[in-house]
Design a protein that fits this description.
The protein is built from seven helices and no strands. It has 175 residues and is mainly alpha-helical. Helix 2 packs antiparallel against helix 4 and helix 6 packs antiparallel against helix 7. The longest helix has 38 residues.
């Protein structure tokens, strides 16, 4: 038996890491190509954005999505490569696969079906939780502090939503 699944299929672990890094870099570049000009445009034409956000806030507005795009794409490339290697080893060993096909809804308890859906659609889960958190927190801030200005309410919503999304990501195991 080899040290890692990558060695038995002929694909070196360094190749998988390089492929994941390249995919992540491409995703980060595309994301930066979108957010960079958007921040530049807002800085040039929106007085509130220009005066209320310092350099670090503007840099974070560009870099946080780029870092997330890099991380998520490289993770997905590595997971796909690992899954392909495991399937390849199962086929080469002439043994039946250790993970037989199981219907996603019929024959599975509801929590297993939900876990399968969550594994297959992680961004739908994250966007659902994030969208609900943003709307709920913004509405709650408006109810709790009606005298608060809109810009302060947006900043409070941003901070609280970030915390909620971090908790959702940690509960999903993406930290």
């Amino acid at each position: 038996m080899s040290d890692s699944p990558a060695k038995s299929s002929g694909k070196d672990w360094n190749e998988i890491v390089s492929e994941a890094t390249l995919g992540g870099t491409k995703s980060a570049a595309i994301t930066t190509a979108f957010f960079g000009p958007a921040v530049y445009f807002l800085n040039k034409h929106h007085t509130g954005f220009r005066t209320r956000l310092g350099f670090s806030g503007k840099a974070a507005t560009v870099m946080i999505p780029a870092v997330f795009a890099f991380w998520s794409e490289s993770q997905f490339v590595a997971i796909r490569a690992r899954t392909t290697l495991i399937e390849h080893e199962a086929a080469m060993s002439q043994l039946p696969s250790t993970t037989p096909w199981v219907p996603t809804f019929h024959g599975l308890p509801i929590h297993h079906a939900a876990a399968n859906w969550l594994y297959d659609h992680p961004f739908a889960f994250i966007s659902t939780v994030g969208g609900s958190a943003v709307g709920s927190i913004f509405a709650l801030e408006k109810i709790r502090h009606p005298e608060m200005s809109l810009s302060s309410r947006v900043m409070h919503t941003r901070v609280c939503t970030r915390s909620c999304c971090d908790i959702a990501l940690w509960s999903y195991g993406i930290s």
